[in-house]
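thought: user wants a sequence for this fold. calling inverse folding tool.
action: design(structure=
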């Protein structure tokens, strides 16, 4: 069993996807399940987790419909406004759908570097456990130390860091990202997605070696029980093909045991999201 723990679908329009700039024009179009399924099949991947790309309940409900229609979509990480006084009501509505496995907010775009420490946000996080939902932490490297404070306050809540917390791979800079990752990895309720790396590197000239120290840091900090492969398709295609992205991780972990590789490429994802 191989799973892709992180990919997106969307019906493109410039109003809802304004973050897709001209430099990303290759993804200025719709990406739907029928586009991804043959790519996953070619890579030997049997299922995926669809992750929100818009801050809307409408998109969450649409993703849940897609999961109901396509067997290979094993779960959805949707969006709920956890800062809202209506958070409980919103969760009550969407969590009734068994395909919802987690929620996410694009914290990296919040101007407040301490966003995760806001009282209203933490009230929302406190609601997730009763619905058996995980939380995807899409944070920048600058926000990562505050995310460590958050996860410490909620030891029973499952968290996963998206995209290695977006280190500066292009610049080859590790400090203070490395120390912050090691600090948050101390908490056993936190996992990390091995995803989104090629878009943090030089899109045109990246090589396998660019990722070595970053992957080594995460694997040493989290071990092979708390990391999972994610492609970040179709965003990753601004910097490489799906197979190239998949091969970056496969090449890096090829010396690990078969059991460890099975964890990274599927078992950990299934366990974390309770697929």
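)
observation: tool returned 275 residues.
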């Amino acid at each position: 069993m191989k799973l892709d723990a992180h990919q997106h679908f969307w019906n493109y329009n410039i109003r809802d996807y304004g973050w897709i700039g001209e430099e990303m024009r290759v993804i200025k179009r719709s990406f739907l399940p029928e586009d991804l399924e043959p790519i996953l099949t070619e890579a030997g991947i049997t299922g995926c987790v669809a992750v929100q790309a818009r801050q809307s309940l409408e998109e969450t409900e649409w993703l849940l419909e897609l999961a109901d229609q396509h067997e290979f979509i094993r779960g959805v990480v949707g969006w709920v406004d956890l800062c809202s006084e209506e958070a409980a009501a919103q969760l009550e509505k969407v969590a009734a759908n068994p395909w919802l496995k987690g929620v996410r907010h694009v914290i990296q775009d919040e101007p407040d570097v301490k966003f995760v420490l806001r009282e209203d946000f933490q009230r929302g996080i406190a609601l997730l456990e009763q619905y058996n939902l995980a939380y995807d932490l899409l944070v920048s490297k600058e926000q990562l130390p505050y995310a460590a404070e958050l996860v410490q306050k909620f030891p029973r809540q499952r968290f996963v860091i998206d995209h290695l917390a977006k280190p500066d791979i292009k610049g080859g800079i590790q400090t203070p990202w490395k120390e912050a990752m090691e600090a948050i990895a101390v908490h056993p309720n936190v996992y990390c997605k091995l995803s989104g790396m090629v878009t943090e590197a030089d899109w045109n000239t990246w090589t396998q070696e660019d990722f070595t120290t970053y992957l080594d840091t995460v694997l040493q900090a989290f071990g092979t029980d708390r990391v999972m492969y994610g492609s970040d398709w179709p965003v990753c295609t601004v910097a490489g093909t799906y197979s190239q992205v998949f091969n970056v991780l496969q090449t890096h972990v090829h010396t690990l045991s078969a059991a460890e590789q099975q964890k990274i490429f599927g078992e950990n994802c299934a366990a974390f999201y309770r697929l």
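thought: summarizing for user.
answer: Here is the designed sequence. The mean pLDDT is 97.
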